[in-house]
Write a structure and sequence with these properties.
With 125 residues, the chain is an all-alpha fold. It has one domain. Helix 4 crosses helix 5.
Amino acid sequence: MRKILLILFLCISTAYFCNAQKGKDDINTVKIAYITNQLNLTPAEAQKFWPIYNRYFSEVKKAQQQSPNDIVAFQEKLVNIRKKYKPEFKDVLGSDERVNKAYTAEAKFIALLKNELKNRRKDDQ
């Protein structure tokens, strides 16, 4: 399953360079699939999880935009946002371990995306 997601990720990330907005939508689709798979979300859990996650992620993006050059300020805001959403995530996911896994899965996805972009830049040179 992970190989399929990785292949899907690579295909969609190619589309990103062809059409920026469509690429963002496609990357978001792969992100949803990746995190859903990492957390083994049931359809019922996914239906509850993703609206909460979308609100959470919106706040994270806003914090990032407010502190683009201050990593410490952003990290402080991120910790506060995660603390704020932890009870909501826990209600859906059922345990602190799964909440932590959600945050870890998000970080792993971002690392995969950055690595893919780095490899593409290297291949273009």
